[in-house]
Amino acid sequence: MGFFKANKMMNGYSKLKLGMSKDEVLRMFGQPTGVRNINGVTMMTWKNSEFKGAMRGGTMVREVIVDFENDVVVGYDSRNMDRSTW
Hints:
Elements: H1 2-15, H2 22-29, E1 34-38, E2 41-51, E3 59-69, E4 72-79
Antiparallel strand pairs: 1-2, 2-3, 3-4
């Protein structure tokens, strides 16, 4: 399951742009694994853990973080999105 979710996350991240609506982002990534609101900025996080095997580094966590103001993307970042799904 992690492999397919990773592909969906990587595909969505490549399409992510400033100014997108929150609804567009939710359609790409589904429900977030975490939500935080600080000073009017809502930060949503999506995480996916993949077991790569002991010889390939064990478990890798991919993460996408998107910041919204007034339900519009004002910033985003990621972790391990440049790593292969295989």
